[in-house]
Amino acid sequence: MLVNIAIVDDKASNRSIIKDKLLRHKIFEVSLIAENGKDFLDKMKVLPPDKVPSVVLMDLEMPEMDGVDAVAAGSYLYPTVKFVMLTIFDDEEKIFKAIKAGAFGYLLKDESAENIAETLEQMHENGVGPISPGIAHKILQLVQNNTVSLIQKHIPEKDKTPFNLTEREQEILKLLVQGLQYKEIGSRLQISPNTAKKHVLNIYSKLHVNSKTQALALAYEKGLI
Amino acid sequence: MLVNIAIVDDKASNRSIIKDKLLRHKIFEVSLIAENGKDFLDKMKVLPPDKVPSVVLMDLEMPEMDGVDAVAAGSYLYPTVKFVMLTIFDDEEKIFKAIKAGAFGYLLKDESAENIAETLEQMHENGVGPISPGIAHKILQLVQNNTVSLIQKHIPEKDKTPFNLTEREQEILKLLVQGLQYKEIGSRLQISPNTAKKHVLNIYSKLHVNSKTQALALAYEKGLI
DNA sequence: CGGCCAATAATCCATTTGGATAAGAAGGTA
DNA sequence: TACCTTCTTATCCAAATGGATTATTGGCCG
Predict the structure, then answer these.
(1) Gap from B165 CA to C4 C1', Å
(2) pTM for the whole thing?
């Protein structure tokens, strides 16, 4: 039986190289190609069930929506899909965040370009998430150096708002997760309930969800709060 | 130049198998053999400086003093020595503890018995701690499941149902926090959406809330999930 | 046996929410 | 200035939710 794979990368050359590698193995079918996280989620929504990928190869660095956010939303919306990140070596923070967000495996771009198909085949056989040795070593060190301190340490560097939420939207999200309804949010922030609602709906579209409960689930699971 | 290796294992057969594998590569010298953690530390004390191993292959399960304690003490006493653990697959807690204690690498016993020497050679070249894919995958999951929770999880071992929720209600609560709506809950559990709704409303009254979002907020805050 | 509770299911109705769409005001930027 | 984004507000409509109530079934307990 064919195994559906999705490729998400902003560089066209990468996409075609990976695709070529995969298609050389007859068990793989590339059923979705996207050029960033948002594009991927959008395309997933309209994908026929038999095309839903079992594995998503996702670049970490992408415009519009990066791999971290995409894996966070994606692993919530499609729990059965396995996300394997493709990355360069030195982005420690993103590596860590993507793991927390639900990445299933982690491959170094250069290291695995050659044998990416073989790696996926192995993964398909034994169900173990593929991890490049270098990354594994890094993860081990992260755990050794007590994980938690590392999470904190990196926060002050950059505070890119997750999912490109605006400040106002984050403010609203905070109230949302407290279980408030539009009216209440409105009066807390001294704005019309209609406005509150508008903000909430905007948040939905950024998170690619469509209800309060889904937004809460995602926010809690991925630690947006 | 020769690379000194130490082997620590309580089974004589393992010791000799590993030793044989290593000696086939002429760059390796086995300068210390011990049968448990205590034995290893004792022998390290009286070892001439030129025999001090660069790498210690250490079994996890051993009598007298196990691999965890040995690596904890050893990595403190001999910071330059690299400890590579040899283990069976399922001892999650020990795997984790050994990492925290300072293990440099982690190999599955069976998986690596064949190519242990090659693995060490690679490690010697690129300085990256060797980790079997299965272990790497497990570590990744540990990080995903928030590391810290595993450390503490073992202390409180109570399973009193919170808020007097019935089993069915807890089942429903679990689906609720995933962001499902009545219809979806109903079809998941093979019951009518009306019944699902009824259960949810019953949950509300037990939790003293009156909306899904409030229920979620409470469930997450109090860790009912 | 009678009573109690959990689980199941349904109905009615008011409120809330989600989705689409439009549009004005304030701010920054090319 | 023209343009873009964010924040603001609004309206219409369909769908989902919350609240109240009633009813049947099957276990369990005294």
Answers:
(1) 17
(2) 0.77
